[in-house]
Design a protein that fits this description.
7-stranded mixed β-sheet; 22% helix; Double-stranded beta-helix; alpha+beta
């Protein structure tokens, strides 16, 4: 029997009672999918999953994304199609994967593309003795708790996202955006399945709010980034080997804590393609909710 246990008041749920090596019944899948829509991230502990097990589970939620062109190390390609190894491990002096170590600011995955990824799934193979936690911020709750005056300033606006890590820390004029992947999406994004509006900006990759003067855009983005970092919206996940964690990339941001560089960390990552266009959401005004 499936048991769904919230991970925090902010976001996330652990789902117990399933061995993901076995195919899910339609009834169990509906329960899991509904928990995912409700809690945004779902965790399965103590799983013993091969690449095929992980891929088969991911495919229940949609099309597993491929990595473009010839991207990926030899180890990633050998692991299976679409795999990214999030790891600091090196073999013969060369990284076997991607995003090796260090802290990473809050972001969603691939917002600089026309159709950002639907979901990301990580399976923990090796974890350090300390650090390396992944933090998640609930962008539904962040959107809803903005003041109505701020929501009105953001209503109907798009933000530009750029594939340049720490774009918000780059000195003004420090890079040419036209040379980098970039795309504009609504600040309030409507979820295609739940219909809810989330705050779709991220500290790592959002460059500007389109249509605002530069200084006003920067100041407002800094306010939004600080808002998304509030403890009331965040769950911090301490990894254990055998954890499988999947999050909805359309309505939450994630970040990573630093960890000792001399300790190994290895997570197998798969992602899901989004087959629906990004939609603008209505600001979740408090005034309307109070009526």
């Amino acid at each position: 029997m499936i048991e769904i246990v919230p991970l925090s008041d902010a976001i996330g749920a652990e789902i117990r009672g399933l061995d993901l090596r076995e195919p899910l019944s339609d009834e169990d899948f509906r329960s899991v999918e509904q928990a995912w829509f409700e809690h945004l991230i779902i965790l399965f502990r103590d799983q013993d999953l091969s690449y095929d097990h992980q891929r088969n589970f991911a495919a229940r939620f949609g099309e597993v994304a491929k990595r473009g062109g010839d991207r990926g190390s030899d180890a990633e390609k050998a692991e299976g199609e679409g795999v990214m190894l999030v790891t600091n491990i090196r073999e013969n002096g060369k990284p076997i994967g991607t995003l090796p170590d260090g802290e990473m600011m809050f972001h969603s995955d691939t917002p600089y593309t026309e159709n950002p990824l639907k979901a990301t799934m990580l399976y923990a193979l090796e974890v350090p003795s300390q650090g390396g936690e992944t933090l998640f911020s609930n962008c539904y709750k962040a959107a809803a708790s903005l003041t109505d005056p701020v929501k009105r300033r953001l209503a109907g606006r798009d933000a530009m996202h750029v594939f340049e890590y720490q774009v918000t820390e780059t000195p003004e004029g420090g890079f040419d955006r036209t040379t980098l992947p970039h795309f504009a999406h609504p600040v309030f994004r409507k979820h295609p399945d739940t219909g809810r509006s989330s705050l779709y900006v991220s500290e790592l990759m959002t460059d500007e709010i389109i249509g605002l003067p530069d200084e006003e855009s920067r100041e407002l983005l800094e306010t939004l980034f600080a808002h998304l970092r509030k403890e009331e919206f965040i769950y911090e996940h301490a990894w254990r080997p055998g954890d499988l964690l999947m999050w909805d990339n359309r309505c939450c941001n994630h970040a990573r804590n630093d960890f000792p560089r001399d300790e190994r960390r290895l997570l197998r990552r798969l992602t899901l393609r989004e087959d629906q266009p990004v939609m603008m959401g209505d600001p979740p005004y408090r005034e309307a909710a109070a009526r």
